[in-house]
Write a structure and sequence with these properties.
- The chain is mainly beta and 211 residues long.
- The protein has four helices and 13 strands.
- It has a seven-stranded antiparallel sheet.
- A hairpin with a 2-residue loop joins strand 3 and strand 4.
Length: 211
């Protein structure tokens, strides 16, 4: 379980395919504090530390299902990945409840600087039946983008003209300078693919309303 308050950005050192899996080796400021089997969020994806060679790096493994529903399969050596260790039960929940189970990806369609802060617009597509189960965004609700807990602005959705059973959703988030500099949001531009995790509380409410 995570809070969406990203601790920093880890750098991808190496990528190695192992069958359908991808072993990702990274370095970050808290590598020396990690242990084998520890859970760490990477761009919002909960992955387990599987190796600590002692050279300041650590390795995690992403399976095929994870690669198919996230942007981890697009990583290149040198890329930055947002990282967060699991939430402490004796700490404050500064963001929102983030499971580290990414639902799907979205695409950045606009970046606008606003006198010291930034507005990012994202679009995503979702089957209508999943939207009914809470896979959508609501105004002033929470969403995790690349693992960052953010407040939704200006959400919208409409059926695709060629597929009425699929919705195109969109939303905007505002990014403060600290988040911009200390996460990989500074590298997000138009066309960048990001990971989305919709609010788990919204999913439960949608499910209860359907019973």
């Amino acid at each position: 379980m995570f809070s969406g308050i990203v601790e920093g950005a880890a750098r991808v050192i190496a990528l190695r395919k192992d069958g359908d899996n991808l072993n990702i080796t990274l370095d970050c400021e808290f590598t020396d504090e990690l242990t084998i089997d520890q859970s760490v969020s990477h761009n919002g994806v909960c992955l387990t530390v599987v190796a600590l060679p002692g050279d300041g790096t650590y390795t995690v493994t992403a399976v095929r299902e994870t690669l198919e529903c996230s942007n981890l399969g697009l990583l290149k050596e040198g890329d930055e990945v947002n990282v967060e260790r699991s939430m402490r039960v004796d700490g404050r929940l500064d963001g929102h409840i983030v499971q580290g189970h990414v639902d799907q990806t979205a695409v950045c369609v606009k970046v606008e600087e606003a006198d010291g802060s930034w507005y990012y617009d994202f679009e995503y597509v979702v089957p209508r039946d999943l939207a009914k189960k809470g896979y959508f965004t609501v105004d002033k609700g929470s969403v995790a983008v690349n693992g960052v807990s953010l407040t939704v602005c200006n959400p919208d959705s409409m059926p695709l003209s060629d597929d009425p059973d699929t919705l195109k959703g969109s939303f905007q988030v505002a990014i403060i300078p600290y988040t911009h500099e200390n996460t990989n949001f500074k590298n997000i531009a138009e066309g960048t693919v990001v990971n989305l995790e919709f609010d788990i509380l919204g999913k439960y409410l949608a499910r209860l309303s359907a019973i």
